[in-house]
Structure formats: C-alpha cells, structure tokens
Write a structure and sequence with these properties.
The chain is α+β, with helices and mostly antiparallel strands. 18% of the residues lie in helices and 31% in strands. The chain has one domain. The strands form 3 sheets. Strands 5-6-7-8-12-11-10-9 form an 8-stranded antiparallel β-sheet, covered by helices on one side. A two-stranded antiparallel sheet has the order 1-2.
Length: 211
C-alpha cells in the first residue's frame, strides 16, 4: 500500500488527541470497551426488534455537514436505519430512537468529567459523554463500527482495505501506519488497521475531535 509511515512520536500524539483513552496498542477506546461490553452483557440480553445497524451502507446521510473529498461527499454523521447519529450533539433522543440495545455499561470517562455510557447494537457501538456544563445532558462522543455487519454511509466496512478507502474517499487528511482519518470542523471519521495485516480495516470510528 502507499501509506506514508509517520514517526512513532507523531502517531502517539495523534492518537492521544483524537481518541477518548490512550492505550498500549493502536485501537481506540471503543475497541477495548467493545470487548468489555460483550463480557458485561447479560446472557439473556435480547436483540432489538429493529436493529439499528445499517448493514447495507446505502442509506444517505440526512445531515448537510459533508465535505467533498475524493470521489464522494463524506458524511461525518452516521445513519442507522434512518436515525442520524451526529457526534457532539444530544445523545438521549438518539439512543431512544435506536431502540433496545444488546448490551450497555457505564464507565468513568477518560476524556471528560463524569460517566460515559456504552451502548452496543450488534456490530455498532454508540458512546456518550456528559456535557461539561450540565452533567445531566449526554452528548454523542463516538459511533464505532466494530465488524463487517455494518458499513459507513458510503459502503466501507471492516475487512475492506486502505486502497478501498482511497478509491472511495480520496487521500486521507491525516494518516499513520495504523490509521487513516478524514476530518471536518469538530469531527472525523477514522479507519484503524489490523496489526497483523495493516492493509485491512479492523475498526471504523466516527468521533468528536478533541483539541
């Protein structure tokens, strides 16, 4: 692949600035939280009648916040079965609209003051955080696509390659050996790559950009 290799110091700086929690590997906080969510899920947790994960990736985003990049307009707001998930915006109404989740847990936020909530719907994970001015108000921090049952609004999913991303979106705004990122004001879409096969996407994250 043609990805440029950026020095380790820059990679560490980028990952700390763009993800909720730092770690010992290249995954986001959502990656580790997904595993914890699965472990914490009750055995009798039932799937939602209307699972929000949009496996087709064909649903157009309703938000007008899209920036031209490459061959398509990138939607920075994920759409799941008609529900638009816009990071940085109010989360409780969105969670209610998504319906019954497969599992959910709370944890102290490592990027904000207060408690973050993690909701899992199949291969889709939604992470919220408390507003700094009003702890009772939850905002949407991340939308994580954890497996190939869900896809971006443009049709890219876990298991696709770096070349697939570039063919669809154009040249990334930022990239390292472990991820490629497209960004707009205050938010981004990040593609993380498999450690053992660095051409292959292992996770996709719609996230607030921390500055």
């Amino acid at each position: 692949m043609n990805k440029k290799i950026v020095c380790a110091a820059l990679s560490a700086m980028l990952l700390c600035g763009l993800t909720a929690c730092g770690g010992d590997d290249s995954s986001t906080a959502a990656s580790s939280s997904a595993a914890e969510s699965s472990a914490a899920a009750a055995p009798d947790a039932s799937s939602a009648a209307d699972t929000p994960a949009d496996s087709t990736g064909d649903t157009p985003a309703e938000s007008s916040d899209a920036a031209p990049q490459g061959t398509v307009q990138i939607s920075f707001d994920y759409v799941a079965n008609g529900v638009t998930l816009e990071v940085g915006k109010e989360a409780d109404g969105v969670i209610a609209a998504l319906g019954t989740y497969d599992s959910m847990y709370e944890a102290p936020s490592c990027a904000f003051t207060g408690t973050s909530n993690y909701y899992v719907y199949g291969g889709l994970q939604v992470v919220t955080y408390p507003d700094e001015h009003d702890q009772s108000l939850n905002l949407l921090y991340e939308v994580d696509l954890l497996d190939d049952t869900v896809a971006t609004n443009e049709g890219i999913r876990v298991g696709n390659t770096y070349d697939d991303i570039v063919a669809k979106y154009g040249t990334p705004d930022q990239e390292t050996a472990v991820f490629a990122m497209y960004k707009t004001e205050g938010k981004a879409v990040q593609f993380f790559f498999d450690k053992t096969n660095p051409d292959v996407i292992s996770e996709i994250v719609y996230t607030v950009i921390l500055v």
